[in-house]
């Protein structure tokens, strides 16, 4: 099995009009939901479905518990989870600091070196011209047609899947999605990285 990639133009952030080097990105073949991942593990590892679900829930619960106690957590040979914090930009000196000025910035994941090496050594890359890589984005009407076809077969869509579906950047995809929400076509569900969009 190979991993497909395509070459994309790097945005000219400085807006100098200079030709930018190309960068490579993986062309996703799809994505696995949590339930599909459980089914995959169940089938290939010959484990009972309920046991796999229980193990994942137990790991998730204990990971939250330990992170909330201030620990860094190593998950098997995959990598490490830890918290990072942010400070209110108004704070200039430590004596001005108050607890509300400190908040969670992110949950970091640092991949285990050996896990990365294992992926790297088994990685077979194949150049693939993505049908979604287009210089001229699809008009809104065509995007809406593709979205409606997708939602007939799937209960929801996220920003990344929509971007791939219509061949737009994540920023362009979010602009489209917000427009569809305003038009009453889509409704936002969830928070943070769990946000998905469902048909109204």
Question: How would you characterize this protein structure?
Answer:
The chain has 200 residues and is α+β, with helices and mostly antiparallel strands. It contains six helices and eight strands. The chain has a three-stranded mixed β-sheet with strand order 2-1-6, with no helix packed on it. The protein has a three-stranded antiparallel β-sheet with strand order 3-4-5. A two-stranded antiparallel ribbon has the order 7-8. The protein is globular. The mean pLDDT is 86.
List keywords for this structure.
3-stranded mixed β-sheet; 3-stranded antiparallel β-sheet
Provide a quick synopsis of the model:
Helix content is 38%, strand content 22%. With 200 residues, it is α+β, with helices and mostly antiparallel strands.
């Amino acid at each position: 099995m190979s991993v497909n990639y395509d070459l994309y133009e790097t945005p000219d952030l400085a807006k100098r009009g200079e030709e930018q080097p190309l960068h490579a990105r993986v062309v996703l073949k799809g994505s696995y939901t949590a339930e599909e991942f459980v089914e995959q593990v169940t089938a290939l590892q010959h484990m009972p479905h309920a046991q796999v679900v229980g193990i994942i829930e137990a790991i998730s619960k204990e990971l939250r518990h330990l992170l909330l106690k201030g620990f860094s957590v190593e998950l098997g040979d995959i990598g490490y989870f830890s918290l990072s914090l942010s400070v209110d930009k108004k704070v200039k000196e430590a004596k001005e600091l108050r607890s509300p000025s400190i908040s969670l910035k992110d949950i970091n994941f640092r991949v285990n070196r050996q896990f990365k090496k294992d992926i790297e050594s088994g990685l077979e890359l194949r150049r693939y011209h993505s049908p979604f890589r287009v210089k001229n984005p699809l008009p809104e009407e065509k995007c809406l047609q593709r979205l409606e076809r997708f939602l007939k077969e799937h209960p929801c869509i996220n920003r990344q899947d929509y971007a791939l579906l219509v061949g737009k950047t994540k920023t362009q995809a979010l602009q489209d999605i917000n427009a569809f929400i305003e038009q009453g076509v889509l409704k936002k569900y969830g928070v943070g990285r769990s946000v998905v969009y469902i048909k109204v």
